[in-house]
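Exam review. A common question shows you a sequence with its structure tokens and asks you to describe the fold in words. Practice with the pair below. Do the first one on your own.
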Amino acid sequence: MIKEQELEQTDVLERHSKGMMMAVRIHEYGSSEVLRYEEARIPAIHPDEVLIKVHAAGVNPVDWKIREGYMKDNNRKLPFIPGWDVAGTVEETGSLVSMFKKGDAVFARPDSSRNGTYAEFVAVPAFELAIAPSRIPMWQAAGVPLAAQAAWTGLFEHGRLERELSILIHGASGGVGSFAVQLAKIAGAYVIATTSSQNVDVVRSFGADVVIDYTAEDFTERIDKVDMVFDTIGGETQTRSYEVLNRGGRLISTVDIADENAAERHLVTAKTFLMISNGARLAEIAELINKDMLHVLIEKEFPLHDAKKAQDLSQSGKAAGKIIIRVEESA
């Protein structure tokens, strides 16, 4: 008697042989109700690209923001596939690609202007790829590329964080914040982190020197002065952060700068940034994971057909660490 699992595998192979895959797509902008689990064409690749068989995809706030239409003026064509964090294996390489081969375990943060990773396959330019860290399972690796690179880019490429400088990190239990705490400590900085009461121990385990429960304490009263603020929250938290910066200090934010004149008034600099993915940077991050110096905090996993629940959790703002969509159960 043929087992149900074997029948499902037969269906998958038949679907792929016809050039089709299962994916979650958006046909119109709106709430999570617009997400559709359906068949779509397996993407073709250009000479400088790699086709990845997706094992897992990471869920990020940019996913639901794009779904709601925050960036609909960038000429993105409907329908499209969301999701811009991936770990999987190389299925096919373009004619110009020599660094990767079929079967390689890889991870990447694909360009968000293209179809994403809530799918069985995704096409990614080779320069965005790196070999996935071998120390952790593939489904965990899917939670690394966007968040870890955003933390790295903000801290070092824009913030110029150095050894013995002091830094305040807001949202330290979130996807980006949890990596920021660890990377700042690896760099030798003195790290002060804010989080909610239920995540204090988690943030402390990542090496923060001081952890402030923002539900019980006002960080402006607890902190004297710091050299840098890394802000993943925005709003009032960002506004009040100027009060704790040393003169000449830097506020680096993953969200918009609300008051463009605040930095000048406080004699500091403030900037937001867009993270451009880079395979070489991602390879360095993978090496830190393989050396057990950098860890991935996972909040919850969902199967591909439950992408709606995954995005709803992300949008709630209550997730500690990363949310993962498992595309292939063997990942």
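Now try the second one, then compare your answer with the model answer below.
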Amino acid sequence: MSVAELAARPVRRVSTRFLRSELRLIVVRRRNQIGLAALAAVPLILAVAIKVSGPSAGGPDFFGQIAGNGFFVALAGISVELTLFLPIAVAMLAGDSIAGEANQGTLRYLLTVPVGRTRLLAVKYAGIVFGAFVAPLTVAASGLVAGLLLFGGGDVTLLSGTQIGLGPALLRLLGVCLYLGVCLAALGAVGLFLSTLTEQPMGATIALTMLTVASFVLSQIPQVDWLHPYLLTRHWQDFGELLREPVSAGALVPGLLSAGAYILIFLTAAWARFSNHSITT
């Protein structure tokens, strides 16, 4: 084919219809809406409980500061939900991504539309990433609204003892959500791989949740400290660096690199598994 013929060929536009359809399905699906409502309810319950009974001495980080500034309800909610509820929310999305289609008998149909297997995996993972960022943002927004309504706002005292205005503090809260979104996206990559191994979405969801809990438990056992640097959840709590002055960007790099490594490894594994897997349903 000549250069002139190549130049004359119309350029195919990349369609985003499949991606938009996937994101719309995630948003309108009732169980996802219920899951987000449950995530949003935890900071609200926390704020009401502290308003009624008062903060307890010696509680977890951020709890003792809630009564003085409602901003900390958002951070307390994130801290409480990070070890279980946020991972479960992502695990539900990831576990359902491929296994859910296989379970419902729609996977073969999707691949004959035609939608290539690589594109299917990419769109499904994009949906998981969307959920991974929306989940912590939902917790933060719910906690912030409830906290400001019940306790008011004002200057925020950081973990380093420095005070900043509420506006800059909100930017740091957004940074916390984005950092955790990247961490949860890495969890979603593991879940996508697990979802290619089974036709039962609940099995993939439970397996990913158990892996997350096991990672948190192992990180507390000093006898396996050689394993700690490789654990998926090793750097999740590093979001606290965004609440110091000055922010140590270098302290966040290990968590981002770890998340990137998990994403690369498990997306590759999911592609290798799915591209060679015989679709029977």
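Model answer, second protein: The mean pLDDT is 87. The chain has eleven helices and two strands. Full marks require stating both points clearly.
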